[in-house]
Automatic annotation (TrEMBL):
Active site: D195 (proton donor/acceptor)
Signal peptide: none
Record-given protein name: Sugar lactone lactonase YvrE
Organism: Kitasatospora atroaurantiaca
InterPro entries membership: 6-blade_b-propeller_TolB-like, SGL, SMP-30, SMP-30/CGR1_Lactonase
Cofactor(s) required, per the database record: Zn(2+)
SUPFAM superfamilies linked: Calcium-dependent phosphotriesterase (SSF63829)
Upper taxonomic lineage: Bacteria, Bacillati, Actinomycetota, Actinomycetes, Kitasatosporales
Gene Ontology terms, MF aspect: metal ion binding
Length: 281
């Protein structure tokens, strides 16, 4: 694959990239900003969020969901730009919440890593929750080791989860009521720490890896198909662009990026041509 090009610099810690309405949307955790940028690098601060961490995805009707991690809430952006409560997650886990993915029915899957890493707490198992379209929330999986990126297959039948502290991708069947069953290993990733993930139309998964400073494409079972080496930790990835074949990666120097006061801005957004377009769940 060609060397990735730098699309954007100056982020503190970029996360949760999503291609939406012709632009890439990125969460800068340190600056508390949701930024939208085009392929020429022109950027716009679309939203400011006080919480840390925070991640985004869209409901089928186009409204934006925002995980306000430290507030233990899922917020919804209305057409007038206001942020309103969508679900209260505090009763399901009292530690900061992390990633979100929305399926075609409007179900939002949100995960909590189970401990406050930035506060130096000892690692503990996390949980996955389902937030139904009307805002009710319930746990659908437990005992996951640092749950991170998630993806839903295009047919809505399977959720794939990165378990960063188990060096694996884990799959669940999605039931008619949105519940998760048939938990299984999708890919063992020896020595890896999978963070953000995305799925392509060939059924392969790209995963970002912070300590190994790379983004890797694997098929079910764990066969490595491509590896993109970076000079800093890779936190997340997304497929998009006009033909869906651009792989976007957010990267930053770690642990320097843990200084989320905004003083250290080593964060980048990089883009590379991918062998297959992205799949939408």
């Amino acid at each position: 694959m060609p060397e990735p090009r730098i699309l954007m610099t100056g982020l503190v810690l970029g996360e949760s990239p999503r291609w939406h309405d012709g632009r890439l949307w990125v969460c800068d955790w340190g600056a508390h900003e949701v930024i939208a940028l085009d392929l020429d690098g022109h950027r716009e601060v679309v939203l400011r969020v006080s919480s840390f961490p925070f991640c985004i995805d869209w409901l089928p009707d186009g409204r934006l969901l925002v995980v306000a991690g430290s507030d233990r809430r899922l917020l919804r952006r209305e057409p007038d730009g206001s942020l309103v409560p969508h679900a209260d997650l505090a009763g399901l886990c009292d530690r900061p919440w992390n990633e979100v993915v929305v399926d075609g029915r409007g179900n939002a899957y949100v995960n909590c890593i189970g401990f406050d890493m930035m506060a130096g707490e000892e690692a503990a198992d996390g949980v996955l929750a389902l937030v139904a379209p009307e805002g009710s929330a319930r746990r659908v999986a437990e005992k996951v080791a640092f749950p991170n990126g998630m993806a839903v297959t295009p047919d809505g039948s399977t959720l794939i989860l990165a378990e960063s502290y188990r060096s694996r991708l884990t799959a669940f069947d999605i039931e008619a009521d949105g519940g998760l069953t048939n938990r299984r290993v999708w890919a063992e990733l020896e020595g890896a720490a999978p963070d953000g993930i995305c799925l392509d139309v060939e059924g392969a998964v790209w995963y970002a890896d912070v300590p190994n400073k790379c983004c890797v494409r694997v098929r079910e079972g764990g066969e490595v198909l491509q590896t993109i080496a970076l000079d800093r930790g890779c936190f997340s990835c997304a497929l998009g662009g006009p033909d869906g074949r651009t792989l976007f990666m957010t990267a930053a120097e770690w642990p320097a990026a843990a200084n989320t006061t905004g003083g250290t801005r080593t964060g980048q957004v990089l883009a590379a041509q991918a062998p297959a377009p992205g799949a939408e769940g």
